[in-house]
Amino acid sequence: MSLSVVKSKVLIVEDELVVARDIEQQLRELGYDPVGSATQAEQAIEMVGELRPDLVLMDIQLAGDMDGIAAAQIIRTRFALPVVFLTAFTADDVLTRAKLTEPFGYILKPFSDRELRTVLAMALYKHQAEARLLNTTRQLKALSRRVLEAQELERRRVAIELHDELGQSLTAIKINLQLSERFKDQSPVDLNQESIRIVEDALQQVRRLATALRPSMLDDLGLVPALKWLAQQTSQRGGFAVNLHHIDMPSRLASDIETACFRIVQEALTNVMRHAQPQEVNIRLSRDGTDLLLSVQDDGLGFDLSAMRERAVAGGSLGVLGMQERATLVGGQLEIESLPGRGTTVQLQCPWHQQQGSA
């Protein structure tokens, strides 16, 4: 079965109809899709809004009150589309005005098919790279803002737990010690037993708090035991089955990879508990040549993936941005697949790096 190739859509803005038809024919032969032709600047702006082309091929000299340079400025500002200028004029003042619109190319008439192909290909590539950079910048800004918010929330949570739980335990021990000094004629056995019980409770609180911040078994035993513990904890709290399928790990992975994998699974399971309402979740850890593959798949409600990505870019989903950032930091890629009613799969693929000194 052959796969159809999506052709880039080009809007032609040229007030000479014969030239416009010739350009249209050239574009078709070069594999582009000329979606329309405008003869005036105002018409071009309107057609861009309606047709949403991938690129605008703009003649500078147009009939009417507005020339191609002014139209290009509006198109760039309003629609963020690449514009390539066509002109037979090389006057310095025209070139200076054209540069202010940040064009993606400049073709002097008459031009060959080779010139047109080269300029359009470079313009589209530059625009795609610019869009990726802009999207990445927006994500980083959103992630930085939300990371700071998350840090403050985590600090507040830890402070409250230390004050309300550990602080109360220490206060109770202090009171017991003071009572033993004031009532020396009484047997201290009961007070000592009470103090021991309070200390044991305080130790449990500290261990629970430390485990929530970072489970020690991740450092001591490695990724698989930590994922087993996380799966059991999630299953108990969420009320659904969490299964871990993994290969035998003959050696420890690099610390940054183990941490990234654990945190990605942790975030994915947190999202599952909050939103998915699943019956079963499967965590899979495997190796594909020189790559590590890790996936978290649930049979829950699923969601609209495009809407989720928009929320993530806008900073509305810190978890997704955090998982993507962790994948990037270990040289990997994170893919998310989901459909409403069809569950969700989160998959990480990254280089398989063993811990230094690990056999």
Structure description:
This protein is of the alpha/beta class and 359 residues long. It folds into 3 domains: 9-111, Response regulator (Rossmann fold, 3-Layer(aba) Sandwich), CATH 3.40.50; 137-212; 215-351, Histidine kinase-like ATPase, C-terminal domain (Heat Shock Protein 90, 2-Layer Sandwich), CATH 3.30.565.10. The protein is built from 11 helices and 10 strands. A 5-stranded parallel beta sheet has the order 2-1-3-4-5, sandwiched between helices. Strands 6-7-8-10-9 form a 5-stranded mixed beta sheet. Strand 3 (55-59), helix 3 (68-79) and strand 4 (83-87) form a beta-alpha-beta unit. Helix 2 packs parallel to helix 3 (68-79). The protein is elongated and about 110 Å long.
CA gyration radius, whole angstroms: 31 Å
SSE series: EHEHEHEHEHHHHEHEEHHEE
Structural class: alpha/beta
* CATH level 1 class label of the largest domain: Alpha Beta
The major sheet is characterized as: 5 strands, parallel
Inertia-based shape: elongated
Q: Count the helices. How many? A: 11
Summarize, please.
The strands form 2 sheets. A 5-stranded parallel sheet has the order 2-1-3-4-5, sandwiched between helices. Strands 6-7-8-10-9 form a 5-stranded mixed sheet.
